[in-house]
Structures are given as C-alpha cells and as structure tokens.
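Hi P.,

Sorry for the delay on this. The queue was packed all week, but I finally got your sequence through. Input first:
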Amino acid sequence: MEPLSGQDDPQRVEAQAAQAGHRPTEINALLGRGTRFEGKLYFEGRVRLDGDFQGEIRGDDVLVIGDGARVGGDILVGACIVTGGEVSASIRARTAIELYAPSKVTGALHAPAIFIDRGVQFDGTCKMAPLDEADTRTSKEATPPPSTPAPPTPASPAPPAGGE
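Then the structure:
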C-alpha cells in the first residue's frame, strides 16, 4: 500500500480530535428539559440547552438552543444555533447565528452570517457584520479599570486661589 500523499488518514484525524478533547459534532454539555440554571456559563466544545437558563453565556464554539429551552441574558459564542424554544437575549457570534422554526427570538443579533428560517418569530435588531474587537471581549474585560483624575495641564490651569 502507498502512503497517503497530501491527505490525512481518517482514523488518525479522528484520533487527533479525540486527543484535543472533543469531536466537532460531539456535545460536551447538556442542560436538559426540566432543568433551570441562573448565572454565568463559560464553555469549550459544543453545548446544548433544552432547559431554562438566565444569565451570561460565553464560549468559542457552538451553542445549540433546542426545543423547550427558555434562555435569557447575554450570549457571546463562536456560533449559535436555535432549533426551538424561546430566547430573549443579545446574541453575538463570531461566525454565524442560525434560527430555525419553531423558535421565538427577541433581542439583538450580531454576526457575520445570519440565517432566519421561515416560521421563526423574531422581534429585535439584526446586524450582519463581523464582530468588532470590543464586541468579542467578555464583560469583565470590557470594563475599564478605575482611573484617577489627571492633574491640571498648562492648557487648563487651576483656578486662582483668591476667588477674583
């Protein structure tokens, strides 16, 4: 047998993906129906929400919001796929947002590619453009550190002390 030239062995590619921690279509975490969570979710890999979530979601990979889900808050992910449920959130994605029927989505969408299927109920704003650097920072990073006021400069002298 000849070695593969210019192509990877499929078994080797799968083994490398498994060593990296996840396969592209494997779901790493699931919030199932009947489950409620409030707070902050940071993730790697693919995450699926079918329960109730209220809060902040951050990740570099794919977030899937499924049937029966009720999600509210602020979402910043690699890609967001809404296949059902109700979402009331600001959704920002680095690659794409996909909304499929029978989803109900309220809020602001921002991604380089946005797909809204026939039958989706959408109420909000939609911006189809790459995210700015400021858009991709987490809320903690986006908050500037506290600063002290600058001393007066020669262009803006301090008022005279005599109250003329």
